[in-house]
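Batch 3, record 17
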Amino acid sequence: MNTVNLTCIGCPLGCQIEVLMDDDKNIRLITGNTCPRGEKYARKEVTAPTRIVTSSVRVYGSRQGERMVSLKTASDIPKEKIMDVIRDLRGVSVPCPVRIGDVLLHNIAGTGVDMIATKDVD
Amino acid sequence: MERTEYNLIIIGGGPAGLAAAVAAYDAGERSILILERETRLGGILNQCIHNGFGLHTFQEELTGPEYAQRFIDKVLERGIEYKLDTMVMSIGQGEDGSKEVMAVNEADGLLLLKARALILAMGCRERSRGALNIPGFRPAGIFSAGTAQRLVNIEGYLPGRRVVILGSGDIGLIMARRMTLEGAKVLVCAELMPYSGGLKRNIVQCLDDFGIPLKLSHTVVRIEGKERVEGVVIAQVGPDRKPIPGTEEHYDCDTLLLSVGLLPENELTIGLGAEISRITNGPVVNESLETSVPGVFAAGNVLHVHDLVDYVSEEAHLAGERAAEYITACKDAMCAPPEKEKQIPVAFSGGIRYTVPCTIDPDKIGDWLKIRFRVGDVMTQRKVVLCLDSEPVLVKKRRVMAPGEMEELVLTRKVLAAHPDLSSIEIRIEEDKA
Ligand code: SF4
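Prediction for the assembled complex:
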């Protein structure tokens, strides 16, 4: 058995939720949440937490003199892949112009998710 | 000859200015000019590359630049005029009641502009370290969180490798994650108050995700290093917020980020002579978001600091509509004829720090009006009670309220209609015993 402590982000109350898991990673007990949303959040966080990753990379040839373009994963990726995504972005540099939604990198860190631009740069 | 007269001039091309311009245009106003001091529209959103913007407005989670672009596109589609790289030096009133704007930019030099109405949308700036009095030299390596954000996301360089953050405002939390991702080691985030001013989601996803400790009731008591920051000392504070001797902890670091609050930027407003609230540091406004100077409206962080950009856009929309109405009332004159004032002050008690608006003319409310406010302390099990002429007309239960989360109440036309000779409006927070 082990316990995982979480802060629910569902609302400003920020309940401290305790999840009790057995050795096979099955959830045995969820306590501390004040409403069902907290339970749902806790389930997701302990079984398959995901995040959108945002960052910025260099651009070249910008008429506006911009040096960076911001980008994000097109959808959620597993939380434990965050650092792999960031590693794959090191040293990347993309040509202008860039439009919001342009795919800048395919299948980042083997997640199957693309990195797309979040800023127009000319 | 450059055009120098407009019906409406909007100062600031960030989220508030853009939304106000679009709303004024859609209300029928065609003579609008936006003045922006940066080289692109969008304001601070351009450097806020994280996501979480727009859930209320667009029902999807956008990054800052994407949210800004939605509104920039609306401004461009409508052909609304704007000037970039343009710094407004002062605003004032002419003898004919017109609003005068003095601005400079490289292309035009000095610009003297006239308008019937103004919308103030200058936003806010970060509190600086000077206001905080941390002992020690002033070595390099001390940045406001927003400056660090700009350096990393816009300029593309990392301002330090080992980082301590003072203050747990949202920008500080966001930068804890951002700098970690860029390869820095963020050692600790110290917060003077016993609670964080940042959103829960940011504490979880920016600190907890990366194992960065948040130390509540802690502050920086010493900064070491002469040329560059070499370390900082953090200590616990008591209920009086004074450091407790013997609790000092030393951190080896080269960078200190400050995320200790935002201040509405109102030098221009003060120069104009509009009344300023000592609580919000923003102008005092009525239900139309009009300042004490008729025809001058304000919206967004210049008025009071918001935690969600969606609320800024919504507020600015109202300012834009009301400015357009004011201009219609001007007819051929440069200002609208003075009106019989029926402004009722919004009274408040029970831990509320301020409300926006500060006064309400019941005849000037559309179908509804949002009254926004903040509380001064964390409170649990409360109810917010709105009274018209001492009669409770609205009760909203709140399980928890915190200074970091803006609260709102919706006053509807229907509720007001039952009180035709209204003379007092009050919002109270009471304990909710049930
Ligand atoms: S469990 Fe429910 S009440 Fe508690 S923080 Fe989550 S959403 Fe809010």
